[in-house]
Amino acid sequence: MAKIILDRLVEHFVAGEIVETGSQHGNEWARVAPANWRAVAQFLRDDPVTALNMFIDLTCVDRLGRTPRFDVVMHLYSVDKKHRVRLLAAVSEEDPHIDSLVALWPGANWFEREAFDLYGVRFVGHPDLRRILMYPEFVGHPLRKDFPKEGRQPLLRRLPGSVD
Amino acid sequence: MDDSSQTSRRVVIGLGDAANLPEDDELPTESMPLNMGPSHPATHGTVRMVLEVEGEKIRSADVQIGFLHRCFEKEAENATWTQIFPYTDRLNYVSPMLCNVGYALAVEKLLDIDDRIPERAQFIRVIVGEISRITDHLTCLAASAMELAAFTVFFYLMKAREWLWELLEEVSGARLTHSYVRIGGVVADLTDDFCPKLRDILRRCRAAIADVDKMLTSNRIFRDRMDGIGIITRDDAIGWGLTGPVGRSAGLAYDVRKDHPYLVYDRFDFDVPVGSRGDNFDRYAVRLEEMRQSMRILEQAMDLLPAGPILIDDARVALPPKREVYNTIESMIAHFKLIMDGIVVPPGEIYSFTEGGNGELGFYIVSNGTGQPWKCRVRPPCFANTAVLNKILPGLFIADVVPTFGMINMIGGECDR
Fold first, then answer.
1. Residue A4: how many CB atoms within 10 A of its CB?
2. How far apart are the first and last CA of chain B?
3. Residues 6+ apart with CB under 8 A from B194
């Protein structure tokens, strides 16, 4: 059923804008050129055939070793048509950034803040891009694969000469 | 300003329409920042709300979460597929079974064994899951009622929750962190007297819920603080990704159990309560009715519960019986490999979603074909639900924060992971 979404995407956008589409385990997905991230999302939301009006989830995947390194992943759902789609867009390690979708779905706000916090991807146009799960003083983006699992970043300032 | 607006001046605390009052109708006050939390006696959860207030009225709100962040995803990326179950217990810790089931279903879809799970195991998952849903809603209503000074209600509902948790403890061995579900089934069968006990508990729970219904639903004090406060529209619910009781109270009739049935939910007859106003009272009423519907499902599931195995017969995922582990070298090796290397899940990506206590609980899992997930993302329903507080708090009074926050039902473990 949800094949309609992918067909609509391929119909409406030229080849370079939709990089790849596929289906696995019943999930339909489309890989989008990062420059078209917002345009594709807006099309899927407003098109009466797809009507993917509900924002479900947004996160990142660190595919360490691949260039470009990160994927921004979003899930959308259609309340009326009861179908859903996964959108992916690759962003580079050197300057990870992609358009913010807060203007399309207010709910994207916290999800984009979380992706920024944990993966360091900037969302261009986000109204309030702060850390959300980690504290503001935290250094690094902990869900990146090269961030060590063990380690401490004490928030308290040590007095000179004190020992742990 | 004419005279009519002067005479009609009336401020009723808790009616939530303060935002509609004309500006010049009130004494001028300077705005000031007010910190609620992170550890506040009237919010059952570790969350900080930075409010900008003018007098008693909230002008803007900044809800800050993350105080309970325990690196679920980072830990999951360094654990075998089975070792993640205890972490999922600690996501929504008032309905751990639902998180267990949601995670197991996602991994089973990746393994392509989701259509081979024994029927009895699926029924057991529904039963323990619905019990968990009841405990989730009981906790939400109990704590919220207590914060509105209805302490009796708290005791009535906590007692009911305790009966259910004692029953789950008999089945799983743990009162709260069950880790009862396994990939391919469940870890242990129901106890022999489980069904008669559950029927008895449901009878007593029904009575407790009916008592609470009588005490709260037409209680003037309770209604004054719930009616018309914290209104969420259906469009808000769609745009903010609100699911579960919060979304349904706003008129968005989306329940994963009905719209995309998983396990054996399509065999049961149950209704999905939907609110019409999207205020705090609707969220309370939806939860109350959902508990009754869960009881209906439980009774049907107990009637239909088939006999049979509780774990899939597949050496790739299921541990061999202990008797064989101790007596045959093949089973010993299989056991060792499954424990040390973990279940090997073929490469792929899956987004699997179930109806959690607070809404759509999604697992987005990326496997690279090893014994550990490459990424194990939870889509926590609370996270989206809590975000909408930033929108609905402005315009309310400080006293309205307590019931509004309570009815959103933020569960720190799930929201912050």
1. 14
2. 52
3. B167, B170, B171
Taking the mean position of all CA atoms in its chain, how far away is CA B272? 16
Q: State ipTM.
A: 0.88
Q: Which residue type occupies B326? A: Y
What are the pLDDT digits (tens) for A12-56?
A: 777 777 888 888 888 888 889 888 899 889 988 888 888 888 999
Answer whether B295's CB lies under 8 Å from B275's CB: no
Chain A residues touching B238 at Cβ < 8 A:
53-55, 79
Q: Is the pTM of this model over 0.90?
A: no
In the three-class reduction of DSSP (H, G, I as helix; E, B as strand; rest coil), residue A8 is classed as helix
Under a CB-based contact definition with an 8 Å cutoff, are residues B394 and B58 in contact? yes
B47-51 long-range Cβ contacts below 8 angstroms, 24+ apart: B47/B386, B47/B405, B47/B410, B47/B412, B47/B415, B49/B389, B49/B393, B49/B401, B49/B405, B51/B393, B51/B398, B51/B401
pLDDT at B25: 60
Q: Which of B360, B375, B379 sits opposite A61 (nearest CB)?
A: B375
Q: pLDDT, tens digit, for every residue of B308-341?
A: 898 888 888 888 888 888 999 989 998 998 888 8
B322–chain A Cβ distance below 8 A for any pair: no
Asked if the Cβ–Cβ distance from B66 to A132 is below 8 Å, we say: yes
